[in-house]
Every structure is written in C-alpha cells, then in structure tokens.
Amino acid sequence: MCRTHPNRHRRRTLPLGALGLLLALSACTRSRDARAAPPPDPVRAGPGQEGTPPSLPAEALEGGTAAGKTRGSGRSAPLPPPVPDKGIFPDLDAKVRVSLPSWTGSARLVVADGSKGGRFVLAAGGVAGFAPPDARADATVPDLGGNDADGDGIPDALDILLGATKTALDAAPYGSPYRKIAYPGGDVPRTEGVCTDVIIRAMRNAGLDLQKLVHEDIPRARASYPMVKTPNANIDHRRVKTIRPWFGRHWVARSTDPKRDPEDWLPGDVVFMDTLPQAGPDHIGIVSGELGKSGLPLIINAWTDGYRTTHMDLLPFVPVTHRYRVPVAAWKVDAALRGPPGLAARAGLALPAGSKQILMVASADYASKHAELQRWVQDGAGGWRSVGASIAVNLGHAGLGWGRGLHGESRGDGPTKTEGDGRSPAGIFALGTAFGRAARTPGKSKWPYRALGPRDRYVDDPSSPLYNTWQRAPETGEPAWRSAETMLREDGLYDLGLVVLHNDPKPVPGAGSAIFLHLDGKPPTATVGCTAMGRADLEGIVKWLDPGKKPVLIQVVGVAVR
Questions:
Q1: Distance (Å, rounded) from C-alpha 99 to C-alpha 78?
Q2: What is the Cα–Cα distance from 31 to 41, expressed in whole angstroms?
Q3: Cβ(417)–Cβ(403) under 8 Å?
Q4: Choosing a second label site near 193 at 20 to 30 A (CA), which of 94, 409, 468, 550?
Q5: Is the torsion defined by CA of 166, 138, 140, 557 positive or negative?
Q6: Model confidence over 369-413: pLDDT tens digits?
Q7: Which of 454, 452, 408 is nearest to 427 (CA)?
Q8: What's the rounded Cα separation, in Å, for the pair 248 and 251?
Q9: Can you tell me the distance from the alpha carbon of 321 to that of 263, in angstroms, rounded to the nearest whole number?
Q10: What is the pTM of this model?
Q11: Domain range list for the chain
Q12: Which residues, at least 6 apart from 101, have a Cβ–Cβ distance to it below 8 Å?
C-alpha cells in the first residue's frame, strides 16, 4: 500500500542563535566597491558590501560529533592516508587525518589496491573513506584505474577531501584581490583565498585542474556559460556562478537536503549554497568526514571577510542549491563481485535462473528511506552490464524489511515486512503488469499494461480472501473487503506504475500488500511501502522491460560495484 508518507516539507525556521548569520548573509558577497577593470571580486555577482560582517552563530563554528542527532553518529578514529599523498601543501601531509563518516549506513565494502597498497571503504553511491587498519578486504583490485587522476593510489574523492583538509589546516584568511595567475595550474598566494579557492586547491590535490577544465569547457559549451562574455583564465574558475555549469556538465548531481538522505552525503562532495537574498548559488564548500553539533556533516569552506578556511556547521543554516560528486569509474574487481551477482551474493541471495534484466535497488541500511536503482542486462557471454545512469528512488518511510518473493521467506539480518509497517520489501521479486491513467503504455513497450478505472482497487484487508489482489469494486452492494487501495488516485502517484509481485501468488495475511513501483509525490518523499521515482525514470524502465528476458526487481541493503 503506497499512500504518501504524511510528513510535509517546510522551510526551516532558524533559531534565535542564527540571527547573527542572517546579518552575515547580507554581507556575504565577499565583494568590494566595483573597480573599473579587471572584475572587482573573483566570486560574487551580488552587490558589494563594506566592513567586516557580523559573526556566525557559535554553533556554526563548532566542530565535533553530535551523538544521537543522526543515525550512526558515533565518531571513527581519524586516519592518515594509507599511502603518500601527491598534491598541494606537502608540508602539511604529516598533519592530515580524516574520519570515516559514521552516517553513511551499514552497507560498506572494503577494497584493497593491489598496486599501491591502500584500502578504502565503498559506501552506497561512492567512496566513503580510508579503511581502518583491522578491516578485512572484501575485494582486491590491481589498481584504481580511472578513479585516481594523479596516480598516487588514493581515489579522487578522498584526494579531494585530503586537499580540502589541508586548506583548513593552512587556514588562510578570507580575501583575495583580482590577480593574474599562471596557466595552467595557477593559484593565488597560499596566504589568501576565497571560497572557490578551497575547491580549486582540493581538486588540484587529486590532479584535477579546475582552472584548465573550466577554461577549456567554456568555448565547447558557450550556451552553458552565458555569464562569460570574454573567457579569462585568471578569474572564470574563481567565480561560483561560472563554475556551477562545469560541475553540472561533468560531475554527478546528488540531492540537496542533508536531512532527507544523510547517508548519501559523502566526504569530498562539492556543495553550492545560497547565502544571499537573491536566489541562486553564491557560496561553495566541500563535505568533510566529520559531523557537526547539529548532527549534519561539517563543510570545509572559506566563509567571508574576517574568517579563515575551516570546518563549519553550515548545513542547518544555509540552503544547498546543488551538490556534485566526482564520477566513479568501474572498479576492476572480479566479475563475481560486480553488479547483480555480487550484490545478491553479499545479501545471501541467488539470481533467478533465466533472468536477463534486473532492476537493482541498493540501500545504505534497513532504516534508509532512499536508495539507488540501477538497470542491468545480461550480455551474450553471460556477464552483466549496467544500463543508463543510476536513479534516485524513495523507499518506505521506515526503510526496508524482508518480504516474500522469489528468494523465499525473510532473512535474519534485518526486519521482516508486515502490513502497514511503512517498509518497502527487501528480496527478489517478479514484476506484474504496468498500469496508469493513460489509455495505453507510454512509448513503445513490450510490457503488459492496464489502464486504470474508477472502480479499480488493490485489496489490503488481511482478513479478506482477496487480500493482496487487484479487484474491481462492485457497482452496488458491499465489497468482499473492508479496506483497499484506490488505484485511480487524485494525487497522480499511480498515473504510471508497475506491480511488484510481493507476497504473491499465495498471499500470507498480514505479510504486506499493494506493492508497486510508482511515481514520486510532489515534492518527492518517502512512501508507506513502495518504491517511487520520477516520471521520466519510470517511463524509461517500462519501455526497457522485455518479457522475454524475465526481468526481476532486487531490493537489498548493500553496495553495488560497477
């Protein structure tokens, strides 16, 4: 049953302690009075402000970990990189320590690099941190392949985190006039910097030269950079609004609300923030491996005049407009550990014989309300390849619970799904008919489709002999059930959907009913037991499904390795 979870998304009311921040936001342009030429400030497009801004609220400046504020908030021991870091500020390398994030869920995979000797933790969605010394490796790769731009044996995401951490240790005071700098690899003096310089230096620590990348991208995609009239390699990469299109074109966009899916916020992610009355991104920082007192990740950033580059607890106070992650290339792990076979095996499952299309949903842990869906298809040689980009999906508001499907009964390592528990079913499931408000399936699809009518119901009454079946309400008289899901909904959630054959074909009363893949609500939010996504994504799935390939849905807690 998939009525949308009743919680509403509301604009957060700032605490009284944040009044200082509100005043600071008005002075957060980091600009001076306009000068004739060149441009006055490398970052802001807003109006210039004079003087030192008021202080941030004390809680935004405090680091540390808030126990109990966020699931899994216990702090891990900070670790040095397992191999020498080749990057910026080598004099600070001996001081660098970073923590394995505690909020990314229980689904983790330790990968050992056979060439350089490092060991790293993969979490749902990317690289989470360095593995503790006593952690057993789940897989060994000959090298990091396309995930190590500078070849130092540290994955790019963690190299970016190390670079950002070094900028915080360096603690340059905010500020920098317009300067002519070298190209490529140019930088202002280390003793100064604005918010974009944190990103530039952090990426350069990974062997990624944002100055060169942006300067070369502008002529290739002029329409994406309407703010650039004449390209200038001294300044373009130091402006927030100019570099935002580059990240949108080349990195992986992630969600922007850390309270909605905290497990997806990984160290090294780049966040754009809106600090000014004029809507849009005007500030930038990098997600750290530390939790703030708020229970949300600290952001490494250069805030404004009067501040130094440091970790700040900004996320409770400053809206995030965009978040991006460095792309992750395929890991060179054994075929048995990759894709659906590997993820299913780690969950104690076996792929059904004959299934050549799989919808794989991987969640960070059983309590997570959100997950990643990836399509997979078996090739002629029996291997598996991913199809398209991963899809962000919403699960039940209580997470996952083992259901009844092709895998059999529930497992002992997690909760068991029951009627009305708010959990999406974990396991392996065949797919039933597609359905929707339209008279026929969108586009060209081979998959069976059923147009919804006003009397269509999915029975969720455990006491009814028709429990967990699709029925039509009688025109007159009482139906053979006390409760049922109305399929033709006013909110549009079922304008397109797919039946998930959970607790089917012999339903056990109370084991769960009316489980679908369906459309997200507006705004997108957790369901009461289904798996929801955007219309374009679901339409793509329906068009892709091929009855001859016997597709199945697999939903588990784990890390999918591509």
A1: 4
A2: 5
A3: yes
A4: 94
A5: negative
A6: 999 999 999 998 888 999 998 999 999 999 999 999 999 986 768
A7: 408
A8: 6
A9: 18
A10: 0.83
A11: 63-325, 335-557
A12: 76, 123, 128, 129, 265, 266, 267, 289, 291, 297
